[in-house]
Amino acid sequence: MSKMPLFFVIVVAIIVIAASFRFVQQRREKQENDAAPLLQKRVVVSNKREKVLNDRRSRQQTEIPAGSTLRYDVSFKPEAGGLEMSFRLDGAQYHALTVGDKGVLSYKGSRFVAFKAD
């Protein structure tokens, strides 16, 4: 009988440690983005992706269709050549862009700031 509570304590401890690690990782990334200089590059919008984020199981979706939330990712290719950069945007910023747009991308670290089309 004493083994069952010990198992649950170990599982809870692992969950707490994993959650703490993720929280520290997100906080560190936010601090690095805040400290990064504002960079600007001439780029071309190379790809746009919408991903549905589902918080329901398949049976729940068939019985009660839900309004799903979307995640918007956009990739930019530098005009002068180089590696493609991808950023997560909100809906308004995402819908303002079309693939093939050229302009100036502003970003801080891994955080999208703005895109000004020509």
Descriptive terms for the model:
118 residues; alpha+beta; five-stranded antiparallel sheet; 3 helices; 5 strands; 37% helix; transmembrane helix
Describe the structure.
This protein is of the alpha+beta class and 118 residues long. It is built from three helices and five strands; from the N terminus they run αβαββαββ. A five-stranded antiparallel beta sheet has the order 3-2-1-4-5. It starts with a helix and ends with a strand.
Short note summarizing the structure:
With 118 residues, the protein is of the alpha+beta class. 37% of the residues lie in helices and 38% in strands. The longest helix is centred in the N-terminal third of the chain and has 33 residues.
Distance between the termini: 70 Å
> What letter string, H or E per element, gives the SSE order?
HEHEEHEE
Overall geometric form: elongated
Query: Low-confidence parts, pLDDT < 50 over ≥5 residues?
Result: none
Mean pLDDT: 87
Break the fold down into its secondary structure elements and pairings:
Blueprint: H1 3-35, E1 38-53, H2 58-63, E2 69-78, E3 85-89, H3 91-95, E4 102-108, E5 111-117
Antiparallel strand pairs: 1-2, 1-4, 2-3, 4-5
